[in-house]
Input
Amino acid sequence: MRRQHLCCCAPRSGLLGPLDAGSGMFFTSRISEPSNCAAVAMFAGKANCPYYAKAELLADYLQTNLPNFRVHKITQHPDKWEQWLHDICETNGWKHRQSPIIWRELLDRGGKGQLLGGLNDFLEYAQKYYGITSMMLSEEMLAIAEENLQAHLEIVKEDEEIKSLINPMQIWITSASAPICYHLIPLLANGEVFGMTTEISIHLLDTEQFKEMLRGIVMEAEDMAFPLLRSISEHTKTDQAFIDADVIIVLDDVLLNLEVQSLENYIREVSEICQVYAPLIEKNAKSEVKVISSGKTFANLKATMLRMYGPSIRPENIIAISTSWESAAKAMLARKLNMNTAGVKDVIVWGNITGSNCIDLSHAKLYGYECAIRGPPNFQRPLLNMIYDSEWIHSELVSAQSTLGSRVSRCKGMLPAHAIATVLRYWYHGSPSEEIISVGILSEGQFCIPEGIIFSMPVRLQNGNWEAMTELEINETTQKVLWRLGHELVQEKLVALKEINEMHPYEAE
Output
């Protein structure tokens, strides 16, 4: 049986006289209690059920006037009621289909439950044993049911807040033997990502062949004694993956070798991995789980296919990390300008993070750049105005991007780990005000990009959500590039779904 929320509620006022028309109570004889009654009356129902409201009001009155009559109420959200009722009836061997369900826990028999039934059964029971019934009107029942629902939602919210202070945040990392994971663990555990008061539990998932490696990582992390790391564990059984996950970081990669097999076959391999993960996420993870796709290959595609195969996962909670490219591009520009990389802002990465993408400098700004004009720390200059070598921008930058891509794909893990940690921190605590961050998000037609694919674009992150910065203007040349990049991602998706056998090149209109 699922964990139940039990609460003993105070009785409502105005029900103490022998005849109380306002409350709908009518007494036919003196109220009395059967002897040797060592029982607790259990009342369970949907929070918005008027019949449950009527039953609980009568139960409150009996509890007030009978010293041995005890009531426990189990209020369930309407969406969870059917499954909860099925589970409790199956556990106890009962047959009952409606709200409320009422039974007696016989304390002198080890707590064995004796089913009374529904509202009508309880009214008959109260009439027979206590000489009391209820004449509550339908309008009153509906009003109390609405109150019950609002009170239940408030209680659930309070419980979740309390649990968040007690239970650590559950973080799952797939393909955890990858170097990225090794560099990521200290960044997650030091408190800067989720907050200095949030404890975390990290779960490392990989195949059986990497079990010893995972065990070594676990022991090393435990030796570092991070105050906020409640636990860290290794897992090799996929069917137990993502239990109670708050955050899932997908690092799975395929080793591309186009001399061995075609790109389309690698795409289908990625699709098969996502077909395994997505149902497990739906089944085992929390409903608000955040899923992050990273790695050296097919970051966008993994996020897209997890959304396709896991329709109940909130689409806005699945993203792909493009911050590695963004950071590497800023460093390349900073070296060209002989300045600190941290002063380069608002570089945009469009498109397929681990495939064809575009680095957009049209909105980029420089802070702290030493030139003839100086200002306070927040003084900024447009980057394109500071690079006077237009030949470098239009030609060498293109070849530099190729070099950049090679370096990003060969990195040992420190850069992508930092990128993941940075985006997670922004996701939970907000990105810097007015700063552009590039993230792979679900396209809904923003910037005329094809819908239904994960596409890297400029966003801001606030209050646990992201928002595409659609107010940014893009020129016609950039728009054509976005169409080409979108075409590639649509083709990947169609191959993954086996709707086409091979990718078709982009043909400009």
In short: Residues 149 and 213 are 50 Å apart (CA to CA). The mean pLDDT is 85.
